[in-house]
Protein backbone atom coordinates (compact mmCIF):
# COMPACT_ATOMS: atom_id res chain seq x y z
CA UNK A 1 0.00 0.00 0.00
CA UNK A 2 1.22 3.46 -0.84
CA UNK A 3 1.97 5.89 1.97
CA UNK A 4 -0.42 8.75 2.73
CA UNK A 5 0.41 12.15 4.24
CA UNK A 6 -1.82 14.62 6.07
CA UNK A 7 -0.54 18.17 5.46
CA UNK A 8 -2.11 20.15 8.30
CA UNK A 9 -2.08 23.92 8.73
CA UNK A 10 -3.15 25.81 11.83
CA UNK A 11 -4.53 29.28 12.51
CA UNK A 12 -4.03 32.22 10.15
CA UNK A 13 -2.22 30.14 7.56
CA UNK A 14 -5.26 30.47 5.29
CA UNK A 15 -4.09 34.09 4.89
CA UNK A 16 -0.71 33.10 3.41
CA UNK A 17 0.26 35.07 0.35
CA UNK A 18 -0.96 38.37 1.78
CA UNK A 19 -0.06 37.87 5.46
CA UNK A 20 3.18 39.62 6.51
CA UNK A 21 4.90 38.53 3.26
CA UNK A 22 8.26 39.82 4.54
CA UNK A 23 8.09 37.07 7.20
CA UNK A 24 6.01 34.36 5.55
CA UNK A 25 6.61 34.90 1.82
CA UNK A 26 4.12 35.49 -0.98
CA UNK A 27 3.11 31.91 -1.79
CA UNK A 28 -0.57 31.10 -1.11
CA UNK A 29 -1.61 28.10 0.95
CA UNK A 30 -3.21 26.48 -2.13
CA UNK A 31 0.04 26.88 -4.11
CA UNK A 32 2.07 25.37 -1.23
CA UNK A 33 -0.34 22.42 -0.97
CA UNK A 34 -0.10 21.82 -4.74
CA UNK A 35 3.71 21.97 -4.71
CA UNK A 36 4.09 19.55 -1.78
CA UNK A 37 1.52 17.16 -3.29
CA UNK A 38 3.33 17.19 -6.66
CA UNK A 39 6.64 16.56 -4.86
CA UNK A 40 5.49 13.50 -2.88
CA UNK A 41 3.53 12.04 -5.81
CA UNK A 42 6.90 11.50 -7.52
CA UNK A 43 7.46 8.89 -4.80
CA UNK A 44 3.92 7.45 -5.20
CA UNK A 45 2.89 9.00 -1.88
CA UNK A 46 -0.62 10.50 -1.54
CA UNK A 47 -1.32 13.78 0.26
CA UNK A 48 -4.43 15.42 1.66
CA UNK A 49 -4.24 19.01 2.95
CA UNK A 50 -6.39 20.56 5.69
CA UNK A 51 -6.37 23.95 7.43
CA UNK A 52 -8.27 25.15 10.48
CA UNK A 53 -8.24 28.19 12.72
CA UNK A 54 -9.74 26.11 15.54
CA UNK A 55 -7.70 24.10 18.03
CA UNK A 56 -10.41 21.43 18.46
CA UNK A 57 -10.74 20.92 14.70
CA UNK A 58 -6.96 20.45 14.42
CA UNK A 59 -7.13 17.86 17.23
CA UNK A 60 -9.86 16.02 15.33
CA UNK A 61 -7.81 16.05 12.11
CA UNK A 62 -4.91 14.49 14.04
CA UNK A 63 -7.19 11.85 15.58
CA UNK A 64 -8.64 10.87 12.20
CA UNK A 65 -5.13 10.81 10.67
CA UNK A 66 -4.41 7.86 12.95
CA UNK A 67 -6.81 5.80 10.81
CA UNK A 68 -5.63 6.75 7.31
CA UNK A 69 -2.34 8.67 7.29
CA UNK A 70 1.17 7.25 7.60
CA UNK A 71 2.66 10.62 8.51
CA UNK A 72 1.69 14.22 9.21
CA UNK A 73 3.39 17.47 8.20
CA UNK A 74 2.02 20.06 10.65
CA UNK A 75 2.41 23.81 10.87
CA UNK A 76 0.52 24.54 14.11
CA UNK A 77 0.91 28.34 13.79
CA UNK A 78 0.68 30.13 17.13
CA UNK A 79 -0.73 27.01 18.82
CA UNK A 80 2.87 25.74 18.69
CA UNK A 81 3.62 27.95 21.65
CA UNK A 82 0.45 27.46 23.67
CA UNK A 83 -1.32 24.16 23.11
CA UNK A 84 -0.89 21.28 25.56
CA UNK A 85 -4.04 19.82 23.98
CA UNK A 86 -2.35 19.57 20.56
CA UNK A 87 0.74 18.08 22.21
CA UNK A 88 -1.42 15.41 23.81
CA UNK A 89 -3.18 14.74 20.49
CA UNK A 90 0.16 14.18 18.73
CA UNK A 91 1.37 12.06 21.65
CA UNK A 92 -1.84 10.04 21.51
CA UNK A 93 -1.56 8.91 17.89
CA UNK A 94 1.20 6.58 16.77
CA UNK A 95 1.54 8.44 13.45
CA UNK A 96 4.85 10.34 13.02
CA UNK A 97 4.43 14.12 12.91
CA UNK A 98 6.94 16.61 11.47
CA UNK A 99 6.56 20.14 12.90
CA UNK A 100 7.21 22.80 10.26
CA UNK A 101 7.39 26.61 10.31
CA UNK A 102 7.91 29.04 7.49
CA UNK A 103 9.88 31.41 9.73
CA UNK A 104 12.77 30.59 12.06
CA UNK A 105 10.80 30.74 15.32
CA UNK A 106 14.08 30.65 17.30
CA UNK A 107 15.25 33.91 15.73
CA UNK A 108 12.03 35.80 16.49
CA UNK A 109 10.27 37.08 19.64
CA UNK A 110 11.09 35.16 22.84
CA UNK A 111 7.50 33.85 23.12
CA UNK A 112 8.02 31.97 19.83
CA UNK A 113 11.21 30.23 20.93
CA UNK A 114 9.41 27.49 22.81
CA UNK A 115 7.44 24.79 21.04
CA UNK A 116 5.18 22.72 23.29
CA UNK A 117 4.86 20.23 20.43
CA UNK A 118 8.44 19.57 19.30
CA UNK A 119 9.06 16.98 22.04
CA UNK A 120 6.35 14.66 20.69
CA UNK A 121 7.20 15.22 17.01
CA UNK A 122 9.72 13.26 14.96
CA UNK A 123 11.51 16.56 14.38
CA UNK A 124 11.11 20.24 13.62
CA UNK A 125 11.94 22.25 10.49
CA UNK A 126 11.82 26.05 10.66
CA UNK A 127 13.08 29.03 8.73
CA UNK A 128 13.06 28.03 5.06
CA UNK A 129 9.86 29.76 3.94
CA UNK A 130 7.50 27.50 2.00
CA UNK A 131 10.43 25.14 1.35
CA UNK A 132 10.11 24.13 5.02
CA UNK A 133 7.10 22.08 3.89
CA UNK A 134 9.12 20.36 1.14
CA UNK A 135 11.85 19.60 3.67
CA UNK A 136 9.16 18.23 6.00
CA UNK A 137 7.97 15.95 3.20
CA UNK A 138 11.56 14.85 2.57
CA UNK A 139 11.92 14.07 6.29
CA UNK A 140 8.98 11.65 6.06
CA UNK A 141 10.20 10.19 2.74
CA UNK A 142 13.57 9.56 4.34
CA UNK A 143 11.97 8.14 7.50
CA UNK A 144 10.15 5.66 5.23
CA UNK A 145 13.39 5.04 3.33
CA UNK A 146 11.84 6.20 0.06
CA UNK A 147 14.58 8.86 -0.14
CA UNK A 148 18.25 8.20 0.57
C1 LIG B 1 4.57 30.03 12.17
C2 LIG B 1 5.31 30.65 13.36
C3 LIG B 1 4.36 30.93 14.51
O1 LIG B 1 5.06 31.54 15.61
C4 LIG B 1 3.27 31.89 14.06
O2 LIG B 1 2.35 32.11 15.11
C5 LIG B 1 2.58 31.44 12.83
C6 LIG B 1 3.39 30.88 11.73
C7 LIG B 1 5.50 29.85 10.95
O3 LIG B 1 5.13 29.10 10.06
O4 LIG B 1 6.55 30.50 10.87
O5 LIG B 1 1.37 31.58 12.68
O6 LIG B 1 4.10 28.73 12.55
Please give a structural write-up.
The protein is α/β, with parallel strands linked by helices and 148 residues long. The chain has helices spanning 21-24, 29-41, 55-68, 84-92, 131-143; strands at residues 4-9, 46-51, 71-75, 97-101, 123-126. The protein has one domain: 3-Layer(aba) Sandwich (Rossmann fold). The protein is 36% helix and 18% strand. A five-stranded parallel sheet has the order 2-1-3-4-5, sandwiched between helices. The protein binds 1,3,4-trihydroxy-5-OXO-cyclohexanecarboxylic acid. 1,3,4-trihydroxy-5-OXO-cyclohexanecarboxylic acid (DQA) binds next to loops.
Question: Which features characterize this protein?
Answer:
148 residues, alpha/beta, Rossmann fold, 5-stranded parallel β-sheet, 5 helices, 5 strands, 36% helix, binds 1,3,4-trihydroxy-5-OXO-cyclohexanecarboxylic acid
Work out the strand percent. 15-25%
Which architecture name does CATH use? Answer: 3-Layer(aba) Sandwich
Mean pLDDT: 97
Structure class = alpha/beta
Number of helices: 5
Oligomer: single chain
Order of helices and strands: EHHEHEHEEH
Distance between the termini: 20 Å
Our count of domains comes out at 1
Strand order of the largest sheet: 2-1-3-4-5
For the secondary structure, the number of strands is: 5
Shape descriptor: globular
**What bound compounds does this protein have?**
1,3,4-trihydroxy-5-OXO-cyclohexanecarboxylic acid
What are the low-pLDDT stretches, counting only 5+ consecutive residues below 50? none
Query: In this structure, how is the largest beta sheet organized?
Result: 5 strands, parallel
Amino acid sequence: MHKQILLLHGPNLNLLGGREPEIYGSMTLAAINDAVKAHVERYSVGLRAEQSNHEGALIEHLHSAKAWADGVIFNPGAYTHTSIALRDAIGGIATPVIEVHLSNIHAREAFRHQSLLAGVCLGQIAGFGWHSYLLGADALLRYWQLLS
